[in-house]
Amino acid sequence: MNITFNATWWVILVFITDVTIRIAAIIIVPRNRRPTAAMAWLLAIYFIPFVGVLLFLLIGNPRLPRKRRRKQERINTYIHDTSEHLDFGTLRPYAPEWFTSMVTLNRNLGAMPLAGDNAAHLISDYQQSLDAMAEAVREATRYVHLEFYILQTDAATDNLFRALEEVAARGVTVRVLLDHWANRGKPFYKKTLRRLTDMGALWHLMLPVQPFKGKYQRPDLRNHRKLLVVDGLVAYMGSQNVTDSTYNLRKNIRRGLHWVDLMARLEGPVVASVNAVFLSDWYSETDEILTDEIDLFSVQSGPGDLDCQIIPSGPGFEFENNLRLFLGLIYYAQRKVIIVSPYFVPDEALLNAITTACHRGLHVELFVSEEGDQAIVYHAQRSYYEVLLRAGVKIWMYRKPYILHSKSMTIDDEVAIIGSSNMDMRSFGLNMEISMLVRGEPFVAEMRDVEASYRALSRALTLEEWEKQPLRSTVLDNLARLTSALQ
Hints:
By secondary structure, the chain is of the alpha/beta class. The chain is 46% helix and 21% strand. Strand 2, helix 7 (158-169) and strand 3 (173-179) form a beta-alpha-beta unit.
């Protein structure tokens, strides 16, 4: 009788707990969360209550800790107020009203000003980009600021590390930031940190998940930015990490995979905005304010006439700055939209914007990789191909074994974006990213040349080909699509 009694009470307890979880989930989960993400979490909690709750407690909050968000707010206020009445070069004339409104949006959300008199040039060769950054570092006289999602010392990056060692040896201050979770456990991680320490660099891990040291936030938040600033005069930013094009991973080497990336070399007032992003991340990780030491907005004109604006984004901001930028530009486009994104998992608003552009009669192209390096993202991305093809999007698949990792968008013939941000829900909600808005035909012409080179190395995906895919692929794609909304 006691066994029956105890078993009965256990059943009742489990039933009450299960009902409580489901009711609480309806109240808690949807709050301040996009409907698709809320629905995905509710489904997970309802179908696998205890596992779903555990996952929600672990990764359910897409925001940074409050202390870090307040730091971001303080640095934003400082940047906005300090740069309010400063002259950032002469802007190009005859800007369309929609461009001015986009600049205002970016300024309100990310604090950075629009700057004129800039030069920006693209580097699409992987090793050439690393070596160009090394040569820029060797010209440093005061400081070098290096911030990369993945940073590894290896044969490909040795020239850049030697450059850092050379300038550090002559007294130049070298500050380095690298993402903790993206680098820990990866090849050459400890060797990289030792080399930074031995050269005398001041280095810190970004978004560290070290609970025993009192440092913890949602473990899948990432600082995905890639940037370099030398003396406040020259900057590099884009999609490339500081590592070999195979990322030194055995699985990539075994499959023959190599990454294809795109970086921009910048001169002019916009360099100050790139530096401001670094200084804000440095402050977030160290509590050290460098604006007294570095005159952030003491800028000088560059050798070009491009208008540029830096847009930082990520969980430290109230809104999804990069997503709103992409949406606005796609809706304002009048003739052509060309998107390059290795991980393309749009939310409903972005999908509607792209398909609406096709229905408006615009020429729309999307460049993705034929082969994926991340299975879930790869299949989630594929689940959108049919609706895009039916709308009229021209999908180019960059041929394997190369992973097209560049992130860019061109609008008509005068406006472009380049940066670290993918067009996926991770980059919109979980990653700290940096993007640059550029107005100027010379830069867009360079982008067109890069796009043409990608097109020559890609094959077009047709609707007829897509409709022949096996059922198992469709099932995998749709399941992956559901998991992509868990934010």
